[in-house]
Amino acid sequence: MRSHSAKASGHATRLTTLAAIFIGAFALRMAVPMLWPGIHYPDEIMQSLEQAHRLVFGNGLVPWEFRDGARSWLLPALLAAPMWLGDALAPETGAYRLLAQALVAALSASTVVIGLLWARKHGIRHAVLAAVVLCTWFELVYFGARALGEVVASAFLFTGVYLCAEREPRSPRHDILAGVCLAGAFVFRFHLAPALALAAVWRCRADFRARWVPMLVGAAIPLLALGIADGLAWSEPFGSIVNNFRANILQGRSHVYGTSGTGGYVMHMFERWRYALPAIVPLAMWGARREPLPLLVAVTVVLAHSAIAHKEYRFIYPALLLIVFCASLGTAELLRWFQQRPAGSTASRGALFVACAAWLALSLTLAAAPTMRPEWSRGRAGVELMARAGREARCGVGLLAAWSWTGGYSSLHVNLPLYLLDWDRDRWNTQAFDAWILPQGVLDPRPAGSRLVQCDVQGAAGVEALCLWIRNGGCNATGATNEAQHVLDATGQ
Questions:
Q1: Helices 346-367 & 317-338 angle (0-180, nearest 10)
Q2: 126, 332 in Cβ contact below 8 A?
Q3: What was the pLDDT predicted at 25?
Q4: β-strand pairing of 397-399 with 435-439
Q5: Which secondary-structure segment (H or E) carries 209?
Q6: Cβ neighbours of residue 469 under 8 Å, at least 6 residues apart?
Q7: What is the Cα gyration radius of the chain?
Q8: How far apart are CA 246 and CA 254, in angstroms?
Q9: 10-residue stretch averages of pLDDT, the chain, 493 residues long
Q10: What are the structural domains of the chain?
Q11: Alpha-carbon span 437 to 403, nearest angstrom
Q12: Which secondary structure element, helix H or strand E, spans residue 279, and what is its range?
């Protein structure tokens, strides 16, 4: 009886610990959109939150990807339920957007729990370091609540790699779940296919006949969801993958947004990690002696994306997650190598504390580095001014700013027409709208009856300040030809 009670108490303690770690990781990730409600890259809004807003509220800008069938509706659909719930619980508060981001943050925080369980197999040092590093590493916190396919896919990828790395045969249910996770990562980021294939082969290599069928059964679930969603939306199962591959890979449409050489991601990592890179890489390699699969998958992610001309740092976010996890294992191995004492001894606990503190200090230092500091407020001005325009405007909003950096209707949150302005002021119909968002100093002289409401610095998306102006009176859209969706459709943006 006492033994059963002790086991139950120990189980409850472990669950409480895991819950506390999850809540801590979740809180850190949600602090970013709550304190710095900006945009890392327009896709964060236009390909996910804006489309979820269309599903729930019926209004939103349609980028070319959703016009030409190059994106799946799975991610917007995933965000639609919490967006609806947030608006129902707290209308006119911005909760609709925060709750959608909270779902992404929860998926990101789940990787901290999985990483702890994974590392615990190798010892308490490994578990503690994995939890601290995955919970607090600045890039994982920065991206953690962003509604990007890479972030959502990473949660599935990390869990899938964990299941595939398991050395024990386990039951078919284990392999079914691994298949679900790997295919889940694929449907949210199909560019991960080479890395996912590697993980699947790794899992099946010891007993291919017994494992590939359950994994295939599991993989069929998210793949079927993608096929049905694309069939309904684009009249072609898996059409979003085919159309995206054709447009961006074969036709090079993504090249419009910039290209770089094969070493682009190494340069990106050096720009973000600086002096830490020569330390993190060897630590990750050392950790890979314990768990080789996560580092192999990370390298595959980087290599596969390096072959694509258009590069963005967010594309290799899944690799960054796996690399820092391996580096945490390597740090634990380093401690064990230097200190041949039991993990629970006073000296060992002290060394573990120092190692955790060093990782935390490194993360804070890199987060505040000149290359990273502006990123925290990137695109903040556009989002905040658009939200305020939604509260102040009565009949329309004009934008002489990058439309994709304003958050669109997912920030405006009212069904008012948006107008995209150009620098030729003779073509402006200022009577078509009663609110303007534009760079500071552009509107001079000001239209009669207008007032300056707010100016704010855009951050890394531009050094100039953006300002919101409001004009008194009504609107007359007669002759206005620059309504936002009309312009996007006409120009192919």
A1: 150
A2: yes
A3: 98
A4: parallel
A5: helix 208-234
A6: 435, 436, 438, 443, 446, 450, 451, 452, 453
A7: 25
A8: 11
A9: 63 88 97 92 93 96 93 97 96 93 98 97 95 98 97 98 86 94 97 97 85 94 96 94 88 80 89 92 96 98 93 95 98 85 68 95 96 89 92 92 85 93 72 88 70 80 76 86 86 73
A10: 2-35+68-375 (no CATH), 380-491 (3.40.190)
A11: 10
A12: helix 277-287
Of 94, 58, 14, the closest CA to residue 415 belongs to: 58
- Amino acid at the residue 126: H
Contact 457/381 with Cβ under 8 angstroms? yes
167-223 pLDDT, tens per residue?
777 788 999 999 999 999 999 999 999 999 999 999 998 787 788 999 999 999 999
Residue 67, both tokens: 């016009």
Rounded Cα gap, residues 83 and 408, in angstroms: 15
Q: In the beta sheet, which residues pair with residue 437?
A: 399, 468
pLDDT of residue 248: 83
Axis-axis angle for helices 2-35, 124-136 (nearest 10): 20
- Using the Cα atoms of residue 37, residue 156, residue 289 and residue 198 in order, give the sign of their dihedral: negative
Contact 295, 287 (CB under 8 A): yes
Are the C-beta atoms of residues 360 and 141 closer than 8 Å to each other? no
State whether the Cα torsion 327-330-335-338 is positive or negative.
negative
Sheet with 418-420: strands ordered across: 418-420, 397-399, 435-439, 465-471, 450-457
Q: How far apart are CA 67 and CA 14, in angstroms?
A: 48
Task: Give the list of residues 6+ apart from residue 302 with CB closer than 8 angstroms, or none.
Answer: 265, 316, 319
Contact between residue 310 and residue 326 where contact means Cβ atoms under 8 Å apart: no
